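Just wondering, does anyone understand what follows?

——
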Amino acid sequence: MSSTREALIVGAGPVGCLAALALAKRGWRVSLYEGRPDPRLASSKAAARARSINLAISHRGLCAINAIDPKAAQSFLQAVVPMRGRMIHHSNGNLDSQLYDRDGQCINSIDRGLLNESLLEEALNSENVNVHFTHKLQYVDFEARVMTFRDLNADKDVSAGFDFCIGADGSFSTVRRQMMRVVRMNYQQEYLSDEYIELKLPAGKDSQGNPIFLLDPNHLHIWPRHSFMLIALPNQDKTFTCTLFAPRSELDRLTSPESILSWFKLHFPDAVTLMGEKALLHDFTSNPRSPLICTKSKPYHYLDRAILLGDAAHSMDVRVLDLMLQQMAVDPTTAVPRQNVDEAMARALNLYSENRHEDLVAICDLAMNNYIEMRHLVTSPLFLFKKALDNLLYSLSNRRNMRFESFNEQLSRVLFEGEPRGWVPLYTMVTFRPDISYATAKNKVARQSRVLSILGWTGTMLVGMAGILALRGLRMAVSHRSQA
């Protein structure tokens, strides 16, 4: 019997929209439900700008989109601003450019709202996808396969049946909370001590009055101050989206315009000049302070009927799920009574939970380490020495130049390759090698770090011994002269 099955996706953010696009291409009828209003509305855009960190999309993200919709991936490349490296703004005003890649590869700054709108438009171009905004999930009956939503505009409850549902509804996922009623799920949520506030750095004007960038647009700008930092990512309209990350206790002390300006002028004087004091005060006092949260859970699925993606499960991958459904020959056009279990689908979702958990734990750890690196380590001489040595070993042992385009065909067929040969820096593996899983990258760099530490200590000892020998030789020379 042939009858196209129904997939319900809760959450119409970038991950939910990409998942809708992937399932629609496989032949599913897809309904997207979102508790917030349509993000394309002017009021929604204003709200999003007040609390959304710009995305720095890398090869990994672009390849995930390309595997689902190559046309969408190419269109996004027209809307990004490439960033070749980090520009470090030191406390003394000096600038230090730290390139990401020896071959000049870039990560790409894109407005999260623009990415969301583009993916939503792509999904809605499919006749298999429809969307329901201002529908807030209330309850899920996984046995009957029915979801209950609150239509906020009509102020009434509505029900929707499903064969398969995806929870892409963020860190505070209602789908995950409902799954925990029927799944023995291990779950951990950790709040970092830091919070973030979005600020804006405006465009400048050239002699003809045309907008220009006030900072180098091809860098991710960082003002690292040990326990806190300011970052700035470029936008195509020549502005920069800035985000302040700082401990809650630090932000709590900034309660008056005088204290706010005094603090910013002390730690980020050049940024204050570019932002303008009035605009800075407006953004700091008007925009919300948002928490940083890390969540871990397992499993991510329930039987053949539900799975968590995106921030609901931290970093799960639509491309990987799409390939696993394909490999297990899940056919959305073959009807399966809802009281029965689709064994192929159950195997695919179970495989996803088992295979991706190690990657989830790895990316949580890697993300935290990268945050500390940006906030503090980028100014450390030891970090810079290890980075230089890391890149030297990479150049000596691994001469392959692997561009974004080289992965597209490969990653449409396979999940990941094995461990790469030779020496590869962590940032390269995570950012420019989407064929390497997070767990593989973490394990490989742990071994490489031990080698770097040994080389570092060996170098320090040799320099120290050379210094001692030189000093001894100098003393002997002085002694001979005095005797003469």
